[in-house]
Structure formats: C-alpha cells, structure tokens
DNA sequence: TGTAAAAATTGATTTAAATCAAGGATATTA
DNA sequence: TAATATCCTTGATTTAAATCAATTTTTACA
C-alpha cells in the first residue's frame, strides 16, 4: 500500500490545480443559473432574488479543478455554462469517470451533507461557469423553503438509482454488454434518430465503463462485424439492430 | 435477449412472493421505530406522535419480499426489527446484493422520489418488522418539518457516496483487493478487536462483491497463505497484518 | 497550415477470474 | 438425531479482458 499511497499523492497533485479562479460580481451570469436549475426554477421571482443574493459566480478554464478529493470544500456548485467531469481515483490510483455535468446539473453535495472524506474530483473539461452557494446559506434556504429539499431529494434519488444500476452492471455484465447498453442509452436522449453521437472520447468512455480503450475499440469492431452497429466516424455510430444490441 | 427476458421473468416470479403480510394496529412496535431512526429521532415528542399517526407497522416472515422490481409501491419502509436484503437483478438475470438493512435503516425512497421503474428487490432475511409511511403522508411531513428533509438528504448523500465508491471498486480493483477492503470495513465496525465476524455467508458475499463463491474461497485461502489473515471458522477471520491486507 | 501531441486501432501475449465438476462440511428441519 | 439440502472448498479447464507493443489516425495549437 505504501507504494500505492505515494502513487495517489502524486496523482492528487497532478489532478488538482486550483490556479486562475475567476470570481465575478453578483448578478452577472448567475441570474440564468438560478432560473435554469430544476432545484430552484419552480420558485417565485422574489425567492430567486433572495437566492441570487447569496450566490457567487465563478468561472474555470478548461482543465481546471472545481474541487478535489479531501478538499474541505463547503459549497454547492451549479453549472451554468460548460461541462464538468466528476471522477474518482481508486485505491490503486486508477481514474474512474463517474458522470459529466451539463448546465443545470449540480455537484458538491457530498461535502455539504456527509462528514466523511471522499475521493471525488471535479474538473472543467471546457470553459465553464458555475454558481456557488455556501453550505450554511444552502441549509438556511432548505429550512426556509422546504420545496427545494423535495427537488434536491428527487435529484439525489435518481442519482442513487443511476449509480446502483451502474454498480450492478460492473459487477454482473461483461464489457460487451456494458458497451451495448451505453450506446442504447446514448440513443435514448436524441429520440427518433438511430445515429448516436458519443458524448465523450473513447478514453473517457473506457474509464466510464470500467475497461480500456483497446477493449472498446475491439468490441465496437465486433459489434460492427455482427452488423448490430455501423461506425460512421470517430464519434458517430449508427444503430442497425437495436434488439440485437440488447441481446449482447 | 429474448432468452434472457424469459429468464428474468422467471426470476421475477421466483423472487417475488407477497404472501402472508401481517398488518398491526397502530402503536404496537412502531413507537420504538419512530424514536429509533435518525431521520425522526431528533424531533419533539408531539411531532413524533403526529408521525406515528400516519405510520403502519407490518411484519414479514423470513424469505418474504417487502417489495419487488417494478412494483408500484409508494411507501417508505423503516426497519424496526430484523434484517432486510436489498438486491438487484442484472439485465442478464444475475442477482447482485446491494446492502443489508438493520433496525433504523430505511428503504423505498426510489419509489417515493423518482418516477422511473427500477430493478430493486427487498427481502426479509429473518423475522422482520417495518414501519411504513405512504408517499403522500411523507411529503406532507417533509414540507411541514424541513429538518426531516435535511436528515434524509444526509442519509441519501452517504448512500450515494457508498454506492459510487463501490462502483469504482468494481470498475478498477481486482477481486482480491475488493475482498481485502471488505474485510477491513467489516473490522471497522467492532473497533479494537482484530477478529472479523462476516455479516453474511460466502454466497451473499460473492454477490455483494461481484464475484463467485469459488473465487472468494480461493482468495481467502491465498490471504491466509501470505499470513495477512487467519481463518478461524466459517464466519470468523482474524486479521494478522492490516497493512499487508491494504497493500493487496 | 504544418507539426507535435494525444488518441485510437490492431496484433500478440499474459493474466485474472469464471465455469464446470466433484467431494466435504454445515445447516435446517422432520 | 438422522436425513436432506444448501453451502463451501478444491481442482482442472476455459474464457474474457488486460497488458504490452507498434502503427495509424485525429486533434490541438504555434
């Protein structure tokens, strides 16, 4: 473990750079932010104003970390622009992509509600703006407007569902199946079309699906071999046989 | 997939028996129940009474299901006595043990807050009593007493942390490491002692750790070989070298 | 736009763990 | 307490996927 611990510390360092954080004055980008997110957008105008008063807008350049494992960060971060990837480092130092946040999604709740140290990292993968609310301010809001809690609970609940589903897949399905299910879920978003645009590169996809880029390459080639899919370009795949894909 | 679908339906049937449900009058076992759980036990006496008024106590025999995947169950279940195992069936019909609930733990929240169908089963693994609250009643309570929401949020948050940690382990660690970490976490509970009492049989442990009973047997034998642990009896293991175990 | 860096593919090989099979140990309950 | 069923262990074999290595393709950016 000693060797691994050193490894992790190196990784921590590599993974966590807090340079160049840009704070904005109130009321710049975060009006949109509050009215955008499901957890707040059901409120009355004056209530939103109240929230905006305790919210700060912060922007990050591509590659910068919003927070890192073991950070004593005590804020909730709501994405208003850009994309953030949330990942973990395993005990052995491997990177595991958990999810990618888009405008309207939030993160930072682990630091808000649980006391334990965690191993989660958040990194901007493009030019990104977030609204932040401090732990104490958020707790005040949750107590004052209980309907916000219900929204956050709903969001947590679907995240929990998602995470448990993913864990079950890692534990019980082989890589080919996980890839097939991933493709199907990518398709669901943009209904009607049978053409899937991969939301990330193959390296990240491998990390998300708990495998390697080599295996992704090979399995996709196999799926093309059996004519379940057709590889159009690097990021585009046409689904030829959905039932076939689901039977993998 | 057709073959698998049939498989799953068979499993559903096998996994779900709703016979012999025993309702109790109010106020029997569930006084203890409300005052027991973290999400309610911080409230005033009269508030607890209010909750008890909308709570029913139900008991289950060993092997009976509290709920099953796709059930339109709309209640929260709080364990007051016994043990419940929560598990999923994978797309291919394999059982995956998610967690075991003890008195004070609750379940059923997926049905309460998220709309999606899910694949989660809850089964009593011994004589068990639960308190149930209907979705609509719980929502009323959450809106009336916002501090309950904060407690539930805290619980969700730690479950989410746990689930993501587990998913990362499945995706990035080999079986031997997962077993070693499991043993260490079993030890944490009963501090001071280096003797671990396994909380489940090896078959369930395999299902929980995403492997097979054969592999569990072999890996434990290997860990004994290297003198990191000593197998005392079927359910008892002595930790000889904690650092060694963590370095696996 | 050209060049360097990063990502993706393909092949050969190794490795971890599942599966199959059979005997032995524990539990359950009649 | 005997009998049956379930669970656990150990061995032999197979299989899926990781790793290592070498190109090729794509992307980033100077």
Structural features:
five-stranded antiparallel β-sheet, alpha+beta, DNA-binding, 248 residues, four-stranded antiparallel β-sheet, Jelly Rolls, elongated, homodimer, Arc Repressor Mutant, subunit A, 10 helices
What this model shows, in words?
The structure is a homodimer of 248-residue chains. The first copy, chain A, contains ten helices and twelve strands. With 248 residues, chain A is α+β, with helices and mostly antiparallel strands. Chain A folds into two domains: 3-159, Jelly Rolls (Sandwich); 173-246, Orthogonal Bundle (Arc Repressor Mutant, subunit A), CATH 1.10.10. In chain A, helix 2 (30-36) crosses helix 3 and helix 8 packs across helix 9. Chain A is elongated and about 55 Å long. At the A-B interface, helix 1, helix 4, helix 5 and helix 6 of A face helix 4, helix 5 and helix 6 of B. Chain A binds a DNA duplex (30 and 30 nucleotides) through residues 174-176, 201-203, 211-218, 221, 234.
Mean pLDDT of chain A: 86
Using the 3D structure, state the CATH architecture of the largest domain in chain A.
Sandwich
Show unreliable segments of chain A.
1-13
CATH top level of the largest domain in chain A? Mainly Beta
- Give the helix level of chain A as a range of percent: 40-55%
Quaternary structure annotation: homodimer
């Amino acid at each position: 473990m000693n060797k691994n611990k050193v490894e992790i510390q190196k990784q921590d360092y590599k993974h966590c750079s807090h340079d160049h954080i840009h704070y904005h004055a109130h009321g710049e980008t975060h009006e949109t932010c509050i009215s955008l997110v499901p957890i707040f957008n059901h409120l009355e105008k004056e209530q939103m104003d109240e929230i905006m008063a305790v919210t700060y807008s912060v922007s990050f350049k591509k590659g910068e970390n919003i927070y890192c494992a073991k950070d004593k960060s005590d804020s909730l971060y709501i994405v208003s622009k850009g994309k953030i990837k949330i990942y973990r480092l395993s005990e052995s130092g491997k990177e595991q992509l958990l999810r990618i946040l888009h405008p309207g999604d939030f993160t930072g709740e682990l630091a808000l509600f649980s006391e334990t140290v965690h191993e989660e990292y958040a990194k901007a993968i493009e030019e990104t703006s977030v609204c932040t609310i401090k732990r104490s301010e958020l707790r005040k809001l949750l107590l004052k407007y209980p309907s916000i809690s219900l929204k956050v609970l709903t969001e947590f609940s679907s995240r929990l569902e998602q995470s448990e589903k993913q864990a079950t897949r890692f534990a019980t399905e082989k890589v080919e199946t996980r890839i097939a299910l991933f493709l199907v879920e990518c398709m669901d978003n943009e209904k009607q079309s049978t053409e899937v645009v991969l939301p990330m590169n193959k390296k990240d996809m491998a990390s998300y699906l708990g495998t390697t880029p080599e295996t992704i390459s090979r399995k996709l080639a196999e799926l093309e071999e059996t004519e379940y899919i057709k590889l159009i370009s690097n990021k585009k795949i046409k689904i030829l046989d959905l039932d076939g894909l689901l039977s993998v």
